[in-house]
Amino acid sequence: MAIPNETTLRKQMIQFGRLCYERHLLVAMDGNLSARLPDGNILCTQAGCHKGFLEDEHLVVIDRQGKKLRGKGKPTSEMAMHLACYDERPDCLAVVHAHPPIAIAFTIANVSMARCVCPRSC
Predict the structure, then answer these.
(1) Is a pLDDT exceeding 70 seen at residue 17?
(2) Cα 45 to Cα 112: distance, rounded to the nearest angstrom
(3) Is the CB of residue 45 less than 8 Å from the CB of residue 33?
(4) For residues 120 and 122, what is the distance between their CA atoms, to the nearest angstrom?
(5) CATH classification code of 6-108
């Protein structure tokens, strides 16, 4: 599978941020997104941005060691986790780290999500 160019990935990342927000997979500043660029560098959301209202200016390019190459602001503080995903899975082209409120509620209620908790058969 060919990796889309940076312009396309930026548009897709903005769209996915909005979709995650609209579908209540994250709220406000929660979560972060990243995608592997064709040159191997990583496009990611900057720290402290609202994913439901992402704009191109909220995206940062870093190298595989986490050093910012271009963009405004700092890369998300969760980039070590994203980079570990890319290192472990060379076939991984993007990472979405969401904070679904329902999953957080299960954690607070000490309900394991290891078993199926869907309202219908899984």
Answers:
(1) yes
(2) 30
(3) yes
(4) 6
(5) 3.40.225.10
Which tokens in the block code for residue 31?
């979560």
| Spans of all domains in the chain | 6-108
Interacting residues of 121 by C-beta distance below 8 A, sequence separation 6+? none
pTM of this prediction?
0.86
Our answer to whether residue 78 is catalytic in this structure is: yes
> Rounded distance, CA 90 to CA 47, Å?
25
88-107 pLDDT, tens digit per residue, is 999 999 999 998 888 888 88
pLDDT for res 101: 83
Catalytic residue, chosen from 22, 57, 78, 88, is 78
Q: Is 16 exposed, middle or buried (0-12, 13-18, 19+ CB in 10 A)?
A: middle
> Does 117 score more than 60 pLDDT?
no
Nearest to 26 by CA among 66, 53, 8, 44: 53
Top-confidence residue, 118 or 5: 5
Fill in the DSSP letter of residue 75: B
